[in-house]
Design goal:
The complex is a heterotrimer of chains A (567), B (241) and C (291). Chain A has 567 residues and is an alpha/beta fold. Chain A is 57% helix and 11% strand. The model of chain A has no long low-confidence stretch (mean pLDDT 89). The C terminus of chain B is likely disordered. Chain B has a six-stranded mixed beta sheet, sandwiched between helices. In chain B, strands 2-1-4-5 form a four-stranded antiparallel beta sheet, with helices on one face. Chain B is an alpha/beta fold. With 291 residues, chain C is mainly α. Chain C has one domain. In chain C, α5 packs across α6, α6 crosses α8 and α10 crosses α11. The longest helix of chain C has 29 residues. The C terminus of chain C is likely disordered.
């Protein structure tokens, strides 16, 4: 359906032309004013989309960054007479500084608490603005803010001002879109969709979130500054909650996570009430009903609808590139690992060794602690005691992204691939921490997919893949890390016999390359021929550790699985 | 008299087929052990019978086609469910956990409550306590008692011995046998095969979502059972029959 | 200058009204996982409803309470059918927007129907003062505390002692398991919306006498409800009530000594300190480590 992709680009071009035509030929001065306001909000919403849509963090401070940017320009412009080239950069810097200051303590909070913390900051700033009249003009604000002056030219109101604002929007949106599609943006969306997986792929979740937050402040500040140059006054209104609500609504109605959605949402929602103005007194009621209808009918926003009607052009796949040389691995030694949850000892002094070049099986009935052991080694849980030695370093208790960078990769029991991403994108995510560009990451990812025999899946979305293929993709993602140690949690679940045999072949090949492989499994028919060694757990302790045939006939292991006889 | 008939039931999660064309029938008052390794489809089968997961195929309860009914309606037709991991309502008291599952009027509810507390004296002691404070075994008994409050004709139990010490698991199974003795049909999914077989008259063995054995419990050979769970490394991967 | 006792009573009265708002908010939150952004505007709607009905009912304000409760419950059902059920199973952010939209409709509906001027509802009993020993207290403050206590007590009683209440609690704790126990979960969710909205309406009636109600009054209230529920521990019912009282005491106490803006500033700064020091709120469970 290549023509559909072409239609999208034509549509985009037509949209831009229509906007220009409207602005130049048809719009009244009032219409241009509305268009300018739409542009200002578009810029603020693009910034919000970065932290909320891409980053998944509900930051209720976007309105505040907008307001702070507005006040910086307003105060410096009206009180000190500074001009645009001086005030604009400060309107960017001050909100970013605020974001960095506030972000460090609050970004580690869980979602609602983070939202509330940002709300708290917003309210404090509003109170300061209203109650420090010497600085901010108090509740009345400050008038007499100069317009934009560029290289001696005072930009007049109307079409030139709209043009300047929209030039900023175009620049800002293009930059944001570029970032979104680049390494950083890809890493950020993985953090949004699956922060645990992101960490186990070596991504520094905290730093990514902080950068997104600071970036949102940059755009918010820019929008605020432009808004004040448009209105020529600044008042506490710019810091009030309705501004934040408007930005949130625009981001969602436009299409969460899409930069284009931010712009479309802003244009629509600034103009929508104007269209209903003819209804005089009730026009806002109709606007509210229209908004309700819009979100119910199109929960994924305008871009969601557009994507359904005109699916985007499929990007051509990059050519496969060979992966760099892998450093030689070493043995992983688990010593006396312990973890209790609220009094229950899930892991109680577990020790074993994973030798490179070997597959080790980890078996045990439900609740014996197998998944907890993997979580402890990979850093998703902190052990109460014990050591995890790799290459002479003790990794016990380290953050999951450190553990990943030390050379340990894992898969999850419930194959968690991001639904919306393509297979290639999902696997490439494993390389984001290592490779210098998305193109390189995808090229490497393609190589890994080819090795596992699923190269033809590269362009397919992860959601909707049957179980066997999901598992293969997840394995590819872990292998793309080129780990020294590979931990697999029930990789054969849901596969047919034929698929299991193939998986076993792949795993044997991986081990043959020198990787130390640990496989947690219930299906003995799959595991026993594959593993050179088996460790059996029950109730958090090791019952047996040795050759597969011996372990499965060990009386304690049999008893643990089949249960005691009747009392 | 057939109480439950399942025909060609298939169910799964996100692309994976967990239950693949299962057919079986249960008579009133019968106790059937549903066995198989983890991932064999036991849990999904029970959830599909109850209506908690979408499924294809027929489910007929006492002559009534329930396949199209929501779970809460099927429960009122005579199904009781004790899920894996117990899932008691942690913030509610023992008494409230039991009472919420009853559809009878106040007086009858009181009588049913008495019956359940008589069956589980430990719960009577703790009747006013919040459910999260109970031990694993007590929570399991609470979950079973809760399912009984709906006066089910068929009780679906999913891994009741999970996470319990052998002694406590034994107590739970004694209660299950007492319930069966009173005439309730029981479909019991268990990984702990020996215990389940000791409580059941019939055994159904699942592997990869399909039924590989369906017959009297004592006819299931110990070695065949071990092989089904732990495989036979000397002969290679165990093929399903 | 009011005495400390009078301030305390005012604070408790305001807190009682806020508690009704926060209670309605947290009940819907627990039952559905959804944040009802319209909760503040629903309080305003209740206040406006009381203002509109007052001329028709030649009796003290208390007589309006049952009417407001019933009509607002109906409105709550309508809101859940229009703004929640169609978005069930979708990402929660959709319900943010749909309830924001409901709020816009309510705000502007009130402006069109009743005008933007502040309105007052009649006092519950009398608008005068009573003498309790040496204290002179406002009748209305006492009435608010009494009515709110009654309503909260009624909710607690229904939830703790009736079969309906048990079903509502089970739905909030584990909807899938509740279904497996025969609880009609969708009906329970609708009932929770009705209850939450009815209580919002009651809060509106209580507040609309001492604090005039304007169509935009809702914005402030939703912020306070959100803060109350978060300080108290996201999802905790007693936490929401406690959080509401804390906010009201700040508002009344600190603003009497310094000023309203300083009181609010101090509240938010305290809020931030609490969040950083104890991210799970006063009553919440310990937050698990984030990746």
């Amino acid at each position: 359906m290549k023509w559909r992709g072409a239609v999208r680009r034509v549509l985009f071009a037509l949209g831009v032309v229509a906007l220009l035509a409207y602005a130049v030929l048809y719009a009244s001065p009032y219409g241009l004013r509305v268009l300018t306001v739409a542009g200002v909000y578009a810029l603020a919403t693009v910034g919000f989309q970065v932290v909320f849509g891409l980053g998944g963090a509900l930051s209720l401070a976007q309105g505040t960054f907008f307001g702070v940017g507005a006040y910086v320009t307003g105060i410096l412009g009206s009180q000190l007479g500074w001009t645009f080239p001086a005030t604009f950069p400060l309107s960017l810097a001050v909100p970013v500084g605020l974001a960095l200051l506030v972000g460090l303590p609050v970004l580690r909070l869980e979602s609602h608490y983070f939202a509330l913390a940002t709300l708290g900051v917003a309210q404090v700033v509003l109170l300061l603005a209203v109650n420090t009249p010497e600085l901010t003009g108090g509740a009345n604000g400050l008038a007499g803010v100069p317009g934009i002056v560029l290289a001696g030219w005072a930009v007049p109101r109307g079409l030139p001002l709209a043009a300047v604002v929209w030039a900023c929007v175009a620049l800002g949106a293009a930059a944001a879109a570029r970032l979104a599609h680049g390494r950083w943006g890809r890493a950020l969306t993985l953090v949004r969709d699956d922060p645990l997986a992101a960490a186990t792929l070596g991504l520094d979740v905290g730093r990514l979130r902080l950068t997104a937050f600071a970036l949102s402040a940059l755009y918010g500040g820019a929008a605020g500054a432009l808004s004040v140059h448009t209105q020529r006054v600044v008042s506490p209104e710019v810091l009030e909650f309705p501004v934040m609500v408007a930005i949130l609504t625009m981001a969602v109605v436009g299409g969460r996570g899409r930069i284009a959605g931010a712009v479309l949402g802003a244009v629509l929602l600034v103009h929508l009430p104007e269209w209903f103005r003819g209804l005089e007194r009730s026009y806002l009621i109709v606007y509210g009903l229209a908004l309700l209808a819009a979100i119910v009918v199109a929960p994924h926003g305008i871009t969601g609808v557009l994507d359904r009607l005109l699916p985007p052009r499929v990007r051509p796949l990059p050519k496969a590139a060979a992966l760099p040389e892998r450093a030689a691995g070493g043995a992983l030694r688990v010593e006396g690992l312990r973890k209790a949850f609220g009094g229950v000892r899930a892991v109680d002094g577990v020790s074993f060794t994973l030798e490179p070049g070997r597959v080790t099986g980890l078996i045990g009935p439900n609740g014996s602690g197998k998944t907890t052991v993997i979580n402890l080694i990979s850093g998703l849980e902190r052990p109460d005691g014990g050591r995890v030695m790799l290459g002479g370093r003790n990794l016990a208790g380290a953050r999951p992204d450190w553990v990943a960078r030390a050379g340990i990769a894992r898969t999850f029991q419930a194959a968690g691939l991001p639904e919306g991403a393509t297979v290639l994108e999902a696997v490439a995510a494993a390389r984001l921490e290592r490779d210098p560009s998305v193109a390189q990451a995808e090229a490497h990812a393609r190589t890994v997919l080819e090795r596992l025999g699923v190269a033809e899946l590269a362009g397919r979305p992860c959601g909707g893949l049957p179980a066997a293929l999901r598992r293969r993709v997840e394995l590819a993602r872990a292998l793309a890390r080129q780990p020294a140690v590979l931990l697999l949690d029930e990789p054969a679940a849901g596969l047919t016999d034929g698929e299991k045999a193939e998986l076993a072949r792949h795993l044997a090949a991986v081990a043959a390359e020198g990787v130390a492989v640990l496989v947690v499994e219930h299906d003995m028919g799959f595991l026993l021929p594959l593993a050179q060694r088996v460790v059996a757990l029950d109730q958090g302790r090791v019952l047996a550790d040795g050759a597969p045939g011996d372990v499965v006939r060990h009386p304690a292991v049999v008893a643990a699985y089949l249960g005691e006889g009747s009392p | 008299m057939t109480l439950l008939t399942i025909e060609g039931l298939s169910a799964g999660y996100g692309g994976a087929v967990a239950v693949d064309g299962v057919s079986l029938a249960l008579k009133a008052g019968e106790t059937v052990a549903l066995l198989g390794a983890n991932g064999a489809g036991k849990s999904t089968l029970l959830k599909a019978v109850l209506g908690l997961v979408p499924a294809r195929g027929r489910v007929v309860l006492d002559g009534v086609e329930v396949g199209g009914l929501a779970a809460e309606k099927r429960v009122r037709l005579g199904l009781g469910y004790v899920p894996e991991g117990r899932r008691v309502f942690a913030g509610m008291s023992v008494r409230d956990n039991l009472e919420v599952a009853s559809f009878a009027g106040t007086a009858e509810r009181g009588r049913d409550l008495e019956r359940v507390l008589a069956l589980f004296p430990q719960l009577r002691e703790k009747a006013g306590e919040r459910a999260w404070r109970l031990s694993g075994g007590q929570q399991q008994m609470l979950a079973v008692g809760r399912a009984l409050m709906g006066r089910p004709r068929l009780l679906l139990l999913d891994e009741p011995s999970l996470g319990l010490s052998p002694k406590v698991a034994g107590e739970v199974f004694a209660a299950v046998r007492a319930i069966a003795a009173q005439g309730t049909a029981v479909l019991l999914a268990e990984q702990s095969a020996r215990r389940a077989l000791a409580a059941a008259g019939r055994a159904v063995l699942l592997r990869l979502g399909r039924v590989v054995h369906d017959g009297p419990a004592d006819a299931l050979d110990a070695e065949a059972l071990r092989a089904a769970f732990l495989g036979d490394p000397i002969l290679g991967p165990s093929e399903s029959s | 200058m009011l005495t400390a006792a009078q301030l305390l009573l005012n604070g408790v009265a305001l807190g009682a009204a806020y508690a009704l708002v926060a209670l309605g908010f947290v009940l819907v939150l627990n039952a559905t996982g959804a944040v009802n952004f319209a909760q503040g505007d629903l309080v305003m709607a209740g206040g406006m409803l009381a203002v509109a009905l007052a001329p028709l009912v030649p009796a003290p304000g208390i007589a309006l309470l049952p009417v407001v409760l019933v009509l607002m419950a109906g409105l709550g059902l309508l809101v859940s059918l229009a703004a929640y059920l169609p978005l069930r199973g979708r990402p929660h952010v959709g319900v943010f927007i749909s309830t924001i939209a409901v709020g816009i409709v309510l705000q502007n509906g009130a402006t069109v129907l009743l005008g933007p001027e502040p309105r007052a509802a009649p006092p519950l009993f009398g608008g005068g003062t009573l003498r309790l020993g040496e204290l002179v207290v406002a009748e209305q403050s006492l009435a608010i505390v009494a009515v709110a206590a009654l309503l909260i007590g009624a909710q607690q009683w229904v939830f703790a002692r009736t079969q309906l209440g048990r079903r509502l609690r089970a739905t909030a704790q584990d909807p899938e398991m509740a279904r497996a126990c025969g609880v009609p979960v969708t009906a329970m969710i609708l009932a929770t919306f009705a209850l939450g909205t009815a209580y919002a309406g009651a809060a509106g009636l209580l507040l609309a006498n001492q604090f005039f109600v304007t169509p935009t009054a809702g914005g402030d209230l939703i912020l306070k409800a959100y803060i109350a529920v978060t300080i108290g521990g996201w999802g905790s019912v007693p936490g929401a009530v406690a959080g509401a009282l804390v906010i009201a005491l700040f508002e009344v106490g600190v603003s009497a000594v310094l000023s309203y803006p300083v009181a609010m500033g101090a509240l938010y700064v305290t809020l931030l300190v609490v969040l950083v020091a104890r991210p799970q709120g006063l009553f919440g469970e310990v937050a698990r480590r984030r990746a």
